[in-house]
Amino acid sequence: MNKLAIIASGWHYPYKYYQDMASQKIPKNWQVDFFIISHRHPEDENVIKEKDGVRGFAGSSEDSLFLYLDKAMYESPITEKQLTDLGWKYIEKPNTIGDMEVFNQWSEDYDYKEYDMFLVSHDDNLILSDSILIDALENKIELYKPIVGSRYGSNNHQFKTEIVTNDFDWYFLDNGYSEYIPKAFGPRGSLSFYKKEVIDLLPNNRFYFDNIKLTRVGKTDSPPDMRGVNEWNTGGGNFRDFLYKGLPNLGLVDKTRWFSNTRRVSKYCIEGERGFVSNYRADGEKYITDLKNQLEELKWL
Length: 301
What we know:
two-stranded antiparallel sheet, alpha/beta, about 20% strand, Spore Coat Polysaccharide Biosynthesis Protein SpsA, Chain A
């Protein structure tokens, strides 16, 4: 029996995310364990009041698509008891760094070697499908693979891609990729699968964050703008550089895959930005087009 650990970063607490992840179809011969690494309690007053604005939205998708999607995530608050009733193991840790740091904090209490795969996820994701695990682990779908020899760009962070089918020869599977962004290969870490083999290769079997000094230990409010935790984005760059150097000849780049060739959007998940789908300013008009096209394809609109 193979084992998958789903490790969610507990901060925004949309009921829909935790319910939809707990309701995923389970692949044959896999055991799935659900963990929340909580950096603030789901019933903290800041968790509730930060989403009151979108929770009160009374319009339709035609009035405001983004407020409509945000409300879909946050319409119902969730309690710790509801989380545990859904099957999540709730674990509180200091609010040091977000992103892949929650794996490091999880591994303080659990032996990663007992698992074959890890899905590390932010909780401000709008989940669109109950087949994420089936499709990722039973390898019956098309994935996007970087073409190692096509590397280009001002900082050498861009790769052309090819579509591969029925392919399980990957170590790292991320949600979406857009070739045309200068820092394209930098993982967002919002919904990412890691095989045990890539964790084995990490120095000390942990993601590297030692060059990040910003922490928010003891704070339960979200920064008022996008710049409040920008330093934490360095962690994605650290993992990107590891993927370049962790195996000879860009071997880990060759073992990277994506669900889609659109940033933040796949048929499985729309990634939030600092809590909201509506925080799309940094991604521009192409993101809006990609999102609408995906929702229309899935008949959400």
